[in-house]
Amino acid sequence: RARARVCVCVHARTFVCVCVCAFFHTVCMYVRMWVRLVCYFAAVPCVSACVCNIVISLVYRLSRGGHVVTVISCSSEVKAATFLQLLEYVYTGYQRLERVSWEMLDEVELLGQLFDIPQLVRHCRYFRTGNLARTRETTAAVRGRFCDIIRNRFVNHMCLADTRFVVNGVNIPAHAPLLVARCDVMAVMLTGNSFCESRTRKVNLQDTSTEGFLALLEYLYTDSVPFSKTDPIDLLVLADRFCLPRLVALCEQHIAREVETIMKLGDEDLDLIGLLLTAQYHNAVQLHAWCLDIISSKFELISCRREFALLEGENLAYVEKHQFPSPSYLEEKEEYRKAVEADGHGQGRRWRLGRCSVM
Q: Do residues 28 and 17 lie in contact, with contact meaning Cβ atoms separated by under 8 Å?
């Protein structure tokens, strides 16, 4: 009787097909079957290391020498389907236990104990007892923990890094599997045959700040945006550059809140025209429309500023059409002011009572 053997092949450079984010909705695994009941599961070390400390200890010391394939041989008693359940949990932070049998549930729990993944063990036990509320709480806590681990172990760290970005002369290590899964532009750049970056794994970036790019990396790795670490305008520009519409929307929301706070404080140096043009150039559609409304509502104040001359075309037409106060109001106000100056305060007051409907 042939024995089944399960091997985990961890590829540090060649395998790029995994998605890890805060919500971890995407599961991307590659499985190939070998003859004679020998199964190989290709796994990404920088993902496995987020959950399993055993993997990080096995792979990290070997990864410093370049391309590494680490093979972890499990007992023949470990079934391939059960190990796939473990990999899915490691990759996504979520386990769809409703589709597995009670026998497999016990096997998954044992694997969680074997690989020192206590959160998976708790998840299995809560599901077995029917405590679905605690199961959901555990899933949310695990996802948050995943983000913290990824941030601390991999963002701007050499641990299992296989790609290098050069930003203003500064080398920033990165991990191709996470980049490919989270950004289509980087996926084409790092996996397509038409770009030299797919061979050299070195990417030179110009016209951006180091802080902004590190914030972009943290978003790609964790799905959270560290606005406190960078200028949101720089991050908005990078989000548009790498075609990340969700990040663009998050930047728009944050910038709008900041502008509202500054306006409440009465800051007269706020350049709304410049913000409008930046939003338009970098495809921030919502921020562009919001700036148009703000400029229109403060037309009387902003039209006196020097940068108002930069408005042209559709932007100027929109502001003039929706300006507040309206042109008729401003005309009557100017006419009243001239009448007061010409006739004196008393006659001006009588003129106002007789003719002006708004003053």
A: yes
Residue 9, helix vs strand vs coil = strand
- Give the type of residue at 53: N
Mean pLDDT, the chain, whole residue set: 77
**324-335 in b/e burial notation, b at 16+ Cβ within 10 A?**
eeeeeeeebeee
What is the three-class DSSP state of 157?
coil
Query: Is residue 91 within 8 Å of 47, Cβ to Cβ?
Result: yes
CA 186 to chain centre: 14
**Residue 208's Cα: distance from chain center in Å?**
17
Amino acid letter, 193: N
Under 8 Å CB-to-CB from 275, ≥6 apart: which residues? 233, 255, 259, 287, 291
Q: Is 66 left (phi over 0), alpha (psi -120 to 50) or beta?
A: left
| Whole-number Å distance between alpha carbons of 297 and 265 | 17
Per-residue pLDDT tens for 129-154?
887 777 676 667 767 777 888 889 89
Tokens of 10: 């961890």
Q: Are 67 and 20 in contact (CB under 8 A)?
A: no
Q: What digits encode the pLDDT tens for the residues 157-205?
A: 998 899 999 999 999 999 999 999 999 999 999 987 888 988 899 999 9
